Amino acid sequence: MEKQLLIKELNDYLKISEFEDASKNWLQVDTEKTEIKKVWYAVDATSYIFDKAIENNVDLVITHHGMYWWYESALTDVHFQRANKLIKNNIWLYACHLPLDAHNEVWNNIWIVKWFTNIYWIKDYQLEKFWNYHGIDIWFWIKFEEKIHISTIISMLCQHLQFEKKLYNLWNKEYISSMCVVSWGWADAIPEAKEKWYDLLIIWEAKHSSIIEAKELKQSILLWWHRETEKIWVKLLANYITKSYWIETVFLDEKY
C-alpha cells in the first residue's frame, strides 16, 4: 500500500488532529521508500525493537510510545541512534499515544472492561466515563450487580490477559461490585475512587506516595505494569490494518 495513503487513513481513523498530547502523534521518522508491505507494532519505540524490524525487512513500525515528546529538541545520543537505524534501513516510524487510549474501537481501557465482563459473564452493568483531558474522556468506571470475590481478579482476569500484577486489598473487602480501569499512573484517581465508593482501582505503576495515600484512604488498588496495560491496542490496531488493507502485521512483545 502507498505510504502517504496509509498514514492519512491512520490519522483519520485515530482522529489525531483532535488531541492535544505530549507525544507527537503521526509519522515520526520518514524514509525514501513509498510502499508498505510489512508492518510491525510494539508498545515502545526502542533500539531493540528496531533491530528486530531490520532483521525482518519491516517497512513500518507503529508504537504507542514514540521517539519524540514535548521535551526533545535535538537528534543526538539515543534519539540519533534510533533514528539512524530506521533511516539507514528504510523503515518508517508511526506513533500514537492518547488517541489510542481514547479510541472507541481500539483503545486499551474499553477492551479491558469488555474482557472483564466476558470473563465473569457480567451482563448487567453500568459504565461511566472518567477523567476529561482537553475535552476528551479516556477512562471508565464500571458498576455491576454480581459480587465477585477479589481473589479471582488475580486468578482469572490477570492470568487471562497475561498481566503481571500486585494487588493491595487495602479496603479488606472480600467481594467487589465496582472498579475503575486506568491504563496510566494517574494518582488523582485514588481519592476520587474512594470518594465514589468504588471497590477496586486498576492502575499501572504508582509512586510510593500514591500507595501511602491509598493505604490511608483504604482504597484497594491493583497494579499492572505500564507496558502490560498498553499492549492491547497494538494488537487491535494491527487487526484493523490487516482486515482493512491486507497488509502483513506482526506484534513484537519485547519486554524490558
What is this structure's SSE topology?
Blueprint: H1 3-13, E1 26-29, E2 38-44, H2 47-55, E3 60-65, H3 77-88, E4 92-95, H4 98-101, H5 108-119, E5 125-133, E6 136-149, H6 151-161, E7 165-168, E8 175-182, H7 189-195, E9 200-203, H8 208-217, E10 221-224, H9 226-229, H10 232-245, E11 248-251
Parallel strand pairs: 2-3, 2-11, 3-4, 8-9, 9-10
Antiparallel strand pairs: 1-4, 5-6, 6-8, 7-10
- The assigned structural class equals alpha/beta
- Pick out the low-confidence regions: none
- CATH top level assignment of the largest domain: Alpha Beta
Strand content: 25-35%
Q: Give Rg in angstroms.
A: 19 Å
The SSE string, one letter per element, is HEEHEHEHHEEHEEHEHEHHE
Question: What are the defining features of this structure?
Answer:
11 strands, single chain, five-stranded mixed β-sheet, 256 residues, Udp-n-acetylmuramoylalanyl-d-glutamate--2,6- Diaminopimelate Ligase, Chain: A, domain 1, alpha/beta, elongated, 10 helices
Descriptive notes:
By secondary structure, the protein is an alpha/beta fold. The protein has two domains: 3-101 and 232-251, NIF3 (NGG1p interacting factor 3)-like (Udp-n-acetylmuramoylalanyl-d-glutamate--2,6- Diaminopimelate Ligase, Chain: A, domain 1, 3-Layer(aba) Sandwich), CATH 3.40.1390.30; 108-224, NIF3 (NGG1p interacting factor 3)-like (Udp-n-acetylmuramoylalanyl-d-glutamate--2,6- Diaminopimelate Ligase, Chain: A, domain 1, 3-Layer(aba) Sandwich). It is 37% helix and 27% strand. The chain is built from ten helices and eleven strands. The strands form two sheets. It has a six-stranded mixed β-sheet with strand order 5-6-8-9-10-7. Strands 1-4-3-2-11 form a five-stranded mixed β-sheet, sandwiched between helices. Helix 2 runs parallel beside helix 3 (77-88).
